[in-house]
Amino acid sequence: MSQDITLTASDGGRFAAYLALPAKLPAPGLVVLPEVFNTNPHIRSVVDGYAAAGFVALAPDVFWRQEAANYLPYTDKGRTKARALWARLDTDQFARDLGDMVSALRARPDCTGKVGVMGFCLGGKFAYLASTRLPVDAAVAYYGVQIDQHLDEAARRRCPLLMHFAGNDPHVPEATVAAIQARMGSAPGVDIHLYPAAEHGFNRAGYPPYDAAAATTARERTLAHLRRHLS
Predict the structure, then answer these.
(1) Distances (CA, A) of 49 to 29, 94, 119, 132, 205
(2) Which of 68, 118, 125, 155 could form a disulfide with 140 if both were Cys (CB 3.0 to 4.6 A apart)?
(3) What is the spatial distance between Cα 184 and Cα 30, in angstroms, rounded to a whole number?
(4) Which DSSP letter does residue 194 get?
(5) Cβ neighbours of residue 90 under 8 Å, at least 6 residues apart?
(6) Which domain does 104 fall in, by range?
(7) Three-state SS for 113?
(8) How far apart are CA 82 and CA 40, in angstroms?
(9) Does the annotation count 164 as an active-site position?
(10) CA distances in angstroms from 76 to 35, 67, 79, 87, 145, listed in the order given
(11) Identified catalytic residue from 97, 100, 169, 211
(12) How far apart are the first and last CA of the chain?
């Protein structure tokens, strides 16, 4: 079962989120943070997939403080709008809003109280920040951008962290991945995987540059990580 719901931020602001429930409840919670294109039909399908796998899964309207309900297509026009919205996004404010999402999910009677955060691209950055700033039980970052700008927070990580990177990714180039690996790769509770033939966005089923082999392996690793730490 899936539905659009409304959440309330700590400052009283109200924003939309897409929620999908598994067949068996209660279940662990999972916040799914989208790419810069926001919670569009593809991300909703990802939420549905993780609900089917046994999680109370939720994806927010990331840009509700900038312009609500911009769920963007994978087109040049959508990309231009997405970048404009991203330029206005306040990292610290959204991290606080993410904390409110985690709290709301944990408080639901159909949630076991265990909550993880996973994200793609821009969402991958915030999944990493969730691991350093928020009381979450697990985090997963797919080709997270700008993580290298926040490596000074790595020592504050609170939960197990899984990261997936593409080998052919101008948004997260080889030098950036190397810096992340050098800072965190040997830390207990951190698991980093590189998919050499894949491109940024390889999990985007039905849209370029989807890579079925990389996406399947990454999802298997993700499910194992989430089930291990959220059960």
Answers:
(1) 13, 25, 14, 26, 12
(2) 118
(3) 23
(4) E
(5) 65
(6) 2-230
(7) strand
(8) 12
(9) no
(10) 15, 19, 5, 17, 20
(11) 169
(12) 21
Annotate 129-175 with DSSP letters as a single string.
HHHHHS--SEEEEES-TTGGGGGGGGGG--S-EEEEEEEE-SSS-HH
Residue 169 annotated in active site: yes
User: How many domains is the chain built from?
Assistant: 1
- The CATH number of the domain holding residue 35 is 3.40.50.1820
Question: How confident is the model at residue 227, as a pLDDT?
Answer: 98
pLDDT tens string, the chain, 231 residues long: the values are 899 999 999 999 999 999 999 999 999 999 999 999 999 999 999 999 999 999 999 999 999 999 999 999 999 999 999 999 999 999 999 999 999 999 999 999 999 999 999 999 999 999 999 999 999 999 999 999 999 999 999 999 999 999 999 999 999 999 999 999 999 999 999 999 999 999 999 999 999 999 999 999 999 999 999 999 999
